[in-house]
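ok so i was messing around last nite and threw this chain in just to see what happens. nothing serious, just curious
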Amino acid sequence: MSDLDTPSNDSSLPLARATGRVRLRTLVLLRWLAVAGQTVAVLGVHFVAGFALPLVACLVVIGASAALNIAVSVRFPFAKRLSNREAALYLGFDLVQLFALLLLTGGLQNPFAILFLAPVAISAASLDLKTTVALGALAFLCVTVLAFYHLPLPWAASTPPDLPVLYVAGIWVALVLGLGFTAVYAWRISSEAERMSMALEATRAALAREHHLASLGGLAAAAAHELGTPLATIALVSKELEREVDRKSALAEDVMLISSQAARCREILTRLSRQPGDGHDHMAEAPLGALLDEVAAPNLGLGVDVKVILTPPTDERAGAEPLIKRQPEIIHGLHNLVENAVDFARAHVTVTASWTADHVRVRIRDDGPGIAAEILAQLGEPYVSSRRREEVGADPEEAIGMGLGFFIAKTLLERTGAKLAARNPGEGGAEVEVVWPRARIKAGRENAAGSP
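result:
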């Protein structure tokens, strides 16, 4: 079945991560916090702890960071959204500034070296993959240089401690691993959140379209109400003309035609104006078989034989074929599953429905290659698809071809109380089973029709 066979390339979405995700205000405030913390640390070490360090040089490095903050705050509005390139330059400066400060104060022996993780983590959570890799490489270069070249660590004694090379190497390894782990972790969490957000947005759009279709009945009733008055006027005038015109004249037949067509229009408008609950609204509910025929209809004539089969129960308590609410979630969700099956079927798709006194069950089965075993556990996650991105393009309208079909179907159907399960039957192909509690989806007239 489509969207169910192999996982999509996870990098496809992150590589397309939108620009403008970081506001200038956020980075400016973070830098002011860094400037304040660095100033307090340097002044505290020099004047309170009494450790010797190049104070002027350290304050110049900190001042450069403060000056840049002031410059960008004056030049740009706080609400400005930074492009990936602008944010990368901003974070890159922070890495270089931290490198210069640690170069003056002991290199990797300085415990504040752990702050190299912050800019890379921010990039991984907010910027694209290329930017994160570039900043990670810059941080790696800074950490490596600091392992070999730096001024002595400020210390109270005249001779600063000489840390073993093995210990410094351990710090270097810890920082490099920390950079990698933090970046990957933040990247994965951010990407998962973004994929879920996009998938839910696509689900909302699909449901909105289905609700729009469902609302056409109400629009028709409103139109019938508005058209009733002018149509009554036409009918009245046609009746008067019918009495005035000589039945033997050439106009008599035309007048009678107008009168009959006006009567026909009134009958049509009367049917359209009937509201749900008056016992005649065919849009509010449907027998299970008719509902499945409606779901399968758009997939007929596509080269795949689609059959709908009702399996009556043997238990008398189950009653007759149930009436089902024509909820947009049910119609669109089942349609997505049938469309999935048709996409990957070789020749046949079977939609089998059965019911008991407590449950309604629908199985959608195809004779295609089946679901790849390694991804069965991922079913229901967005962007799990066998279709490559280049096959469907980057257009958001093609999102369902990118692995959202099953996710949307599952999300919509679960809103109606359904539980979904997918499997590979032993005879080949793939099968998706949807089970509802009967009380959740039965129509209000089902009891009157003789069902439980």
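not much to say yet. The domain at 285-441 is CATH 3.30.565.10 (Heat Shock Protein 90).
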